[in-house]
């Protein structure tokens, strides 16, 4: 039997099946070691492959991962002080999105993008709102093995390999292994689409529970292709078993990863290590135990071919691993600390990928666009009367309460909604610091924001993103809908939202502009019925809605809400806000700079507009646009004396003031705006004006002149653009 110092190749296995495969390919089996170093707890198998003496160590049963692999190598170098190279051989999960990797194939870690063949994929930090970053790039294999790989793969390319034949030969030698370690039927190699999660519990066979609809079709390999195929590239190593196909593809596409495993990073931080993995599954939820034994045999068979290609003299030129022992001792502690901390990070990223999948499935409308627009339009200091209103203060302080804010068109309900949202978000009250604020702005110009389905999807997504404890109900619904392959009904969304609210703590929900909801009566009734049932739910949720006091809304709400739950935007409520707004415009806006210092004129504008506004902000804003064009005091006085009394009269005047040609264009744009399901962009409006509808075919397009867009911006009346 060779002496301990004659062993130059270390071979580490994490699983018993990997050890069995390694032993099956030894040319000669040596006697067990009888002089192991003190504190060396490894179990060794000694033998020879070609001219290399090899020592195989297997990790303790059930103990795998970076830390245990590093500890095993540390002990190995105590007993076998002349080791020059270490092989990490076994099974791993393939990544089918980057190459045509199939079960039974072999992945060899080789030099990749800024790395030595292995990266540590959970060695990073997940920062909320930012991309998860892989920060561990590990050592490359020894040069002797890189040279041998090049020669071996060239031979494989030209002549093919005999891996399956060598496996059959080994199984003939160890007949008891034949049934379990032979190549499985090709039909059991099932690759599912990345967004399809395994159905049924662990141990349930995919062919019985997952069906064939979500399988990825792949052509059979022909006789001129190596099967199993050998792939060289990046291997990702970490303490987390990769079982998430979406996360797998996300990391793989960014870093060029071919395989995921759990031990190699523990060795390669300071040692030049060769990592060889037989592919037994696709690193997804459809784990396939049936291929593990064969994959281990394939990896071992390739490893033997590689060792036969390596000259012993080349191995002797490599640095002794014992010289790096002190660094390993320190690194084992570092790895353990890193594993504890970064395992949380990879769970966070996995959760983030899943969260994004659910959000994509919900496809919610984004209410923040409307909210930001309302905040930009909000005049500083306005709305304070509402925040001080006793009914509002009661609603804000008592959970399970309801408030209806109603007023005619243009009275600033949307602006007030945004003010309430910010008031709750920024409240110093201790009981409101941890509350969730959900909101939705119904918009008549956007059909995607005019249905109960859209409201529920948006509110659910907001709550899902803001409250970790509310995620189970929507995750369950997502699963019931085939992990996003089908859509949920409104009834399912209603039930799920209630379930989420029941565990979500204190929640405020604000829905603006009920009157802009789809105008078909049955759909409006559905919304009002849901609001009533929502209010009656025994959950810690406060609901505020706004609308014009239209008959159906008013009748419905007043049947179940008491008078203390209703605030009407009367003239006296908003008069001070209007006065402050107008005064700020005429004293500070550059559009009124000709009247800066003319206190009398400024007061006339403020007092007249405030008196005639009848609480309608939009009317005031439109009159200010007209007053901006006045060039002298006489014109200001005339304009103030002839102000239209209503919004409708204001719009009527604008249309009447247009020339006949421009009126034709304005009417066309208004028709398109009235019937379009989505907001019209300026470019689309210009294109619409460039078509002559009554011209004969072939000559209907009017060349758009350079001033066309400028016409829409400058000559389109400000009041029309409102």
Give the key terms:
single chain, Rossmann fold, 4 domains, 722 residues, elongated, disordered C terminus, 46% helix, 16 strands, 5-stranded mixed barrel, 5-stranded parallel beta sheet, 29 helices, alpha/beta
Structural summary, described in words:
The chain has 722 residues and is an alpha/beta fold. It has four domains: 4-329, Rossmann fold (3-Layer(aba) Sandwich), CATH 3.40.50.1580; 365-569, P-loop containing nucleotide triphosphate hydrolases (Rossmann fold); 571-638; 658-721. It is 46% helix and 13% strand. The strands form two sheets. It has a five-stranded mixed beta barrel with strand order 5-10-9-6-11. Strand 7 (118-125) and strand 8 (133-137) form a beta hairpin. Helix 4 (163-173) packs across helix 9 and helix 21 runs antiparallel to helix 22 (599-612). Mean pLDDT is 83; it is low at 124-132 and 706-722. It comes from Fusarium oxysporum f. sp. melonis 26406. This is NACHT domain-containing protein. Residues 401-549 form the NACHT domain.
């Amino acid at each position: 039997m060779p002496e301990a110092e004659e062993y130059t190749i270390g071979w580490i296995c994490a699983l018993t099946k990997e050890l069995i495969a390694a032993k099956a390919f030894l040319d000669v089996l040596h006697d067990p070691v009888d002089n192991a170093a003190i504190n060396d707890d490894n179990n060794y198998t000694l033998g020879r492959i070609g001219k290399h003496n090899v020592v195989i160590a297997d990790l303790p049963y059930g103990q795998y991962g970076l830390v245990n692999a590093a500890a095993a190598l540390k002990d190995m170098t105590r007993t076998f002080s002349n080791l020059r190279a270490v092989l990490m051989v076994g099974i791993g999960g393939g990544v089918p999105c980057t190459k045509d990797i199939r079960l039974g194939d072999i992945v060899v870690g080789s030099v990749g993008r800024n790395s030595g063949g292995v990266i540590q994929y959970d060695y990073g930090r997940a920062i909320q709102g930012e991309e998860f970053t892989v920060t561990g790039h590990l050592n490359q294999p020894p040069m002797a093995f890189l040279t041998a790989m090049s020669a071996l793969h060239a031979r494989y390319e030209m002549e093919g390999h005999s891996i399956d034949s060598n496996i059959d030969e080994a199984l003939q030698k160890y007949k008891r292994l034949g049934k379990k370690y032979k190549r499985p039927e090709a039909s059991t190699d099932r690759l599912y689409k990345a967004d399809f999660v395994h159905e049924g519990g662990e141990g349930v066979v995919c062919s019985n529970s997952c069906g064939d609809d979500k399988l990825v079709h792949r052509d059979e390999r022909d006789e001129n292709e190596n099967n199993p195929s050998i792939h060289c590239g990046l291997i990702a190593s970490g303490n987390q078993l990769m079982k998430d196909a979406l996360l797998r593809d996300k990391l793989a596409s960014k870093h060029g990863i071919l395989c995921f495993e759990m031990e190699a990073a523990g060795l390669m931080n300071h040692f030049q290590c060769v990592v060889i993995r037989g592919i037994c599954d696709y690193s997804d939820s459809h784990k396939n135990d049936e291929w593990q034994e064969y994959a281990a045999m394939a990896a071992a068979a390739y490893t033997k071919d590689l060792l036969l290609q390596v000259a012993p003299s080349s191995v002797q030129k490599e640095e002794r691993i014992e010289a790096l022992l002190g660094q390993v001792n320190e690194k084992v502690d570092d790895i353990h600390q890193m594993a504890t901390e970064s395992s949380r990070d990879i769970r966070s990223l996995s959760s983030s990928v899943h969260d994004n999948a659910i959000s994509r499935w919900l496809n919610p409308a984004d209410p923040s666009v409307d909210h930001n627009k309302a905040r930009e339009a909000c005049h500083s200091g306005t709305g304070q009367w509402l925040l001080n209103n006793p009914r509002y203060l009661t609603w804000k302080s008592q959970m399970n309460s309801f408030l209806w804010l109603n007023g005619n068109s243009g009275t600033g309900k949307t602006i007030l909604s945004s003010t309430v949202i910010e008031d709750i978000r920024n409240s110093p009250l201790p009981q409101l610091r941890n509350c969730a604020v959900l909101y939705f702005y119904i918009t008549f110009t956007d059909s995607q924001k005019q249905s109960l389905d859209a409201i529920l999807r948006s509110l659910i997504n907001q709550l899902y993103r803001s409250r970790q404890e509310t995620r189970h109900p929507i995750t369950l619904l997502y699963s019931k809908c085939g992990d996003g392959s089908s859509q949920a009904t409104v009834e399912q969304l209603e039930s799920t939202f209630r379930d989420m609210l029941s565990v979500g703590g204190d929640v405020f929900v604000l829905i603006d502009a009920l009157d802009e909801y789809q105008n078909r009566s049955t759909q409006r009734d559905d919304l009002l019925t849901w609001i009533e049932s929502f209010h009656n739910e025994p959950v810690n949720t406060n609901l505020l809605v706004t609308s014009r006091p239209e008959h159906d809304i008013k009748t419905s709400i007043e049947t179940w809400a008491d008078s203390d739950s209703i605030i009407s935007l009367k003239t006296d409520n908003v008069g001070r806000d209007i006065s402050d707004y107008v005064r700020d415009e005429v004293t500070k806006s550059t559009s009124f700079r000709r009247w800066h210092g003319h206190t009398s004129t400024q007061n006339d504008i403020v007092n007249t507009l405030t008196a005639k506004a009848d609480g309608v902000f939009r009317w005031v804003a439109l009159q200010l646009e007209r007053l901006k064009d006045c060039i002298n005091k006489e014109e200001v006085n005339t304009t103030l004396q002839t102000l239209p009394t209503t919004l409708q009269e204001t719009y009527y005047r604008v249309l009447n003031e247009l020339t006949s040609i421009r009126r034709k264009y304005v009417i066309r744009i208004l028709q398109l705006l009235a019937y379009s399901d989505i907001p019209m962009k300026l470019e689309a409006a210009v294109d619409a004006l460039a078509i002559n509808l009554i011209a004969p075919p072939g000559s209907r397009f009017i060349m758009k002149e350079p001033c066309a867009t400028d016409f829409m911006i400058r000559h389109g009346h400000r009041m029309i653009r409102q």
